[in-house]
Design goal:
Layout lengths: L1 H16 L4 H33 L1 H4 L31 H37 L1 H16 L2 H12 L3 H28 L2 H8 L4 H9 L4 H24 L11 H8 L8 H28 L2
Helix pairs in contact: 2-4, 2-12, 4-5, 4-7, 4-10, 5-7, 6-7, 7-10, 8-9, 10-11, 10-12, 11-12
């Protein structure tokens, strides 16, 4: 009798765990764990990249410009994590010290796109009429040109240099920010509290600053987080083509460019810096989408 009483609760608990809601709860928990695990990894990668940019000597104390000719083209090892290049410089050290220029150019590019695009979208959505039509046709022209091709044309006109690359990439991203800001301004512009502010005689620029802009910026900031990864890729691409910093200054794109002639004998010169760029781009993209999902709730 006692065995029956003991077995019945155990069976009931097992049935509850494997009941109709048990598998769905398990799948939900697994999905949440996977999602938050990816976010933790993405945040860690971005924090490491920022640490490389701000404190390069902490992560790599060597000289990125000086090499040891006797150690040239050595593969990855405990002494040289990313191997050495064709003149004996440590590739890991150059990647760490190159993060400063690459991420600074990316931040400048995203900042230009965010500020200029937001102003264009705000003005277009708030004023409307002919101004809206004129600005949006200019935005349509920018959208019809691939961003990398537009950046390449601009940096060719501006000249070489990391800041010129940043400006060119930023201009190429303006249209995306302008479109998102305009759509948000049009949504907020029809809200009752905005109409009430205008009806009470509040000046239009005050309404735009206090009510319209304040309630429209969240999706644009989320877009900036998403576009950060694409800006890293664009800046590295232009650097790879030779428009960035003057050699031997390390920059992520130029590091890949330097190693392309040694793919057959020293694959690490291009592969490992390329994997760093891929990790940063994917991490920024995933984190940006998480911010975007949170802002739309």
């Amino acid at each position: 009798m006692s065995d029956v009483l003991i077995r019945e609760p155990v069976a009931a608990s097992a049935q509850a765990a494997t009941g109709p809601h048990g598998p769905s709860r398990l799948r939900g928990a697994t999905s949440a764990l996977r999602r938050y695990g990816v976010l933790v990894v993405s945040t860690t990668v971005l924090l490491l990249a920022v640490g490389f940019a701000l404190f390069p000597s902490v992560f790599a104390s060597g000289d990125p410009l000086q090499g040891v000719p006797a150690d040239k083209l050595q593969g990855p090892s405990a002494a040289h994590w990313f191997g050495t290049d064709n003149i004996g410089r440590d590739v890991y050290t150059r990647v760490v010290h190159g993060a400063g220029l690459s991420l600074t150019a990316t931040l400048v590019a995203v900042g230009i796109a965010l500020v200029v695009g937001s102003l264009v979208g705000l003005l277009s959505g708030a004023v409307g009429g002919a101004v809206d039509g004129l600005l949006m046709r200019a935005v349509d022209v920018l959208l019809s040109i691939p961003a990398l091709l537009l950046s390449l044309a601009l940096v060719t006109a501006l000249g070489f240099g990391t800041m010129n690359v940043a400006i060119a990439v930023g201009v190429g991203l303006v249209a995306n920010f302008a479109r998102v800001m305009r759509s948000e301004v049009l949504r907020v512009r029809r809200a009752l509290y905005v109409e009430a502010a205008f009806a009470c005689g509040v000046r239009w620029h005050t309404v735009l600053r206090r009510h319209v802009l304040r309630n429209s910026y969240a999706p644009v900031v989320a877009l900036a987080a998403v576009e950060f990864g694409m800006a890293v890729l664009a800046v590295s691409s232009l650097s790879f083509l030779g428009f960035g910093a003057v050699p031997p200054t390390p920059e992520w794109g130029s590091l890949i460019s330097e190693g392309r002639n040694y793919l057959a004998t020293a694959w690490w010169m291009t592969t490992l810096p390329g994997l760093v760029i891929v990790a940063v781009v994917l991490s920024a993209h995933r984190l940006g989408h998480a911010i975007e999902e949170r802002s739309t709730r």
